[in-house]
Structure formats: structure tokens, C-alpha cells
Design a protein that fits this description.
With about 290 residues, the protein is of the alpha/beta class. The protein contains 12 helices and 13 strands. It has a 7-stranded mixed sheet with strand order 1-13-12-11-2-9-10, sandwiched between helices. The longest helix is centred in the last third of the chain and has 17 residues. The chain binds adenosine-5'-diphosphate and magnesium ion. The site of adenosine-5'-diphosphate has 23 residues, from helix 3, helix 5, strand 5, strand 6 and strand 7.
Length: about 290
């Protein structure tokens, strides 16, 4: 009877849009008490748009857009795609970079039009005017990307990644199931707290500015505190954490690496399905016992 109930649970999951790797996954799903949520692409849509262009010197807008757009055009990061598309819209064609390097968790750097250029959250000194723009954008939950040329910060681009309409409700449902939601992101603390506040995650449960390879360490630390951890993510940068968690849940809208590393896939990328999955496993296993 046990395997039959598990098969039924698995089948019902598939109907709901929850793909379960194997029937045994339902058992670990049931024990989870902490749900770690990746921010970008999981709680937020991950489809960002370029909003503001702010420069230290008046008249530098086109330069900032051209240099940033040229490098970001070569990156697949959602922030990069927003900047490349926005720059192309505003300045037309972009130059090809002479050198390009992706720096996971920080941004991109390379050589454009004979200059060393960085785009992202590299530790450049910011003139006051840009520091204010950056702080204000981040307090509102937008990402501020610094564009520097030869080590001098020229401008700040603001990029917004809208929170998914279903995320706040999903967090309420997870709490109603007795789970503690934790927000985990490589993005900076101010942006992370802005998003956490909007969806109902406690500030004390925000873990920000975490490099991609450190995400799995955060999961392990929570486990060493005696917690049973589910991780929900979408990116290549979440794969190790998804595999290391007691239960890995991938957004079906995310990367193959995340899906392969996970036990469950939420087909529609709707975070409410994480709560549905836990409810389903509890019900399925209650039937057996
Ligand atoms: P998350 O963990 O939220 O999915 P990442 O680890 O991919 O985010 O990136 C962390 C942060 O590094 C981003 O929020 C952004 O500030 C910066 N960043 C990463 N890649 C880029 C890029 N290509 N261009 C600009 N900024 C970037
Ligand atoms: Mg992500």
C-alpha cells in the first residue's frame, strides 16, 4: 500500500504542476521546517528592466550606456540583459568589447574602446552624488549597478526586478504550514531587505551578499543548527545549494542546472506551488501511516 500511496501522491503532484523526481522525495518534503528562497528569478520575476541612468558628470549618459551595454551584451545574467537591451534602445548600436570577463556575483569587466570597464557591484569609490542615487534606489528595492572606466565611477544604472505577484501569498502559505522562510541572495542587503519586507520575510532571516559558491554553505550552516532545509532556486548559482539541501525545489522557468540538481520542479515557476508540494507530501504520508 505504501508505494501505491506514494505513486498516487507523485501523480497528483504532476497534475498540480509539481514534478517529483521519485516517490521517496515526499518523505523529505514532509520533514522540512525551513525554506530558503533565492531572490532573483524565484521571489522576483528575474526579468529586469533598465530604469534610471545617473552620471557623476552631466552629459556622460551616452558614454555610460555604451560602455556598460557593450560588456553586458556578452553576459546572460538577467541584469546584463536588461542593461544591454536598455542601452541599445537609448544609444543604438553598441561597440564590441576587446576583452570580456564574467565575475559571478559581482558583474562583468573587460576592455571597451581602449578603456578598462567594470559594471556591477565592484568596490569602486563613489562620488557623493552617485552614492546618494545608489542608496535611494536600493532602499526602494531596485538594483544599482556602478559603471566605472579606468577605476573611476562614471555612473549608476538602476535596474528593477519586479516581485512576482504570487510571492507574498506564497510566503504567507509557507508560514501557515509552520515553516520559516529565509531569503538568500547575492544581491546587496538593502535590496534584499526591500524585497523581504514586500513579501513578509523577517529582516533577521535575510542572508544577502552571498557569493554563488557560498550559497551551499548557508544551507549547511542552517542544517548544522538542526534545521531541515528546503531550498528553492532557479539559477546555475543555486545548483550546489539545491543539491545540498534536504529538499531542492527548482523553478521550472529556471536553468537546466537548477532543475537537474533538484528533487522537485515547480513547472510554472509559481512559489505558491512550494507550499502545495509540502501540503501534498504531508497528506500523502498521513494516508500511509
Ligand atoms: P542572485 O543570488 O540574487 O540570483 P547573483 O549572485 O547572480 O544574484 O548576483 C549578485 C549581484 O551581483 C547582483 O544583484 C548584482 O548586483 C551583481 N551582478 C551580478 N552579475 C551582474 C552583471 N552581469 N551586471 C551587473 N551586476 C551584476
Ligand atoms: Mg536566482
Amino acid at each position: 500500500a505504501t508505494p501505491t500511496a506514494l505513486m498516487v501522491g507523485t501523480g497528483r503532484g504532476a497534475q498540480l504542476g509539481i514534478l517529483i523526481k521519485g516517490p521517496e522525495v515526499l518523505e523529505s518534503t514532509r520533514r522540512v521546517d525551513t525554506v530558503v528562497l533565492d531572490k532573483t528569478g524565484t521571489v522576483t520575476t528575474g526579468r529586469m528592466a533598465l530604469q534610471g541612468v545617473h552620471t557623476a558628470q552631466e552629459g556622460d549618459e551616452k558614454d555610460v550606456l555604451r560602455l556598460a551595454g557593450a560588456l553586458e551584451h556578452a553576459s546572460e545574467h538577467p541584469i546584463a540583459q536588461a542593461i544591454a537591451a536598455g542601452a541599445q534602445d537609448r544609444v543604438g548600436s553598441l561597440p564590441a568589447p576587446e576583452r570580456f570577463e564574467n565575475v559571478p556575483g559581482l558583474g562583468v569587466r573587460g576592455r571597451v574602446e581602449g578603456h578598462e570597464v567594470t559594471v556591477g557591484r565592484f568596490p569602486d569609490a563613489l562620488p557623493d552624488v552617485l552614492g546618494r542615487v545608489k542608496a535611494e534606489a536600493e532602499a526602494e528595492g531596485r538594483t544599482a549597478v556602478v559603471v566605472a572606466r579606468d577605476g573611476v565611477a562614471l555612473g549608476v544604472l538602476t535596474v528593477a526586478d519586479p516581485i512576482k505577484e504570487t510571492s507574498a501569498e506564497a510566503v504567507r502559505e509557507l508560514r501557515a504550514l509552520g515553516l520559516t522562510p529565509v531569503l538568500l541572495t547575492g544581491d546587496n542587503r538593502a535590496v534584499a531587505e526591500g524585497v523581504a519586507g514586500a513579501v513578509g520575510i523577517d529582516v533577521g532571516d535575510v542572508i544577502a551578499e552571498v557569493l554563488p559558491e557560498e550559497k551551499v554553505d548557508v544551507v549547511r550552516r542552517l542544517q548544522s543548527e538542526g534545521r531541515t532545509v528546503a531550498m528553492v532556486g532557479d539559477g546555475v548559482n543555486d545548483a550546489a545549494a539545491l543539491a545540498g539541501a534536504d529538499l531542492g525545489l527548482a523553478m521550472g522557468t529556471g536553468t537546466d542546472a537548477a532543475i537537474e540538481a533538484s528533487d522537485l520542479t515547480l513547472v510554472r515557476g509559481d512559489l505558491r506551488m512550494a507550499a502545495d508540494a509540502i501540503r501534498l507530501s504531508r497528506r500523502t504520508l498521513a494516508t500511509i501511516k
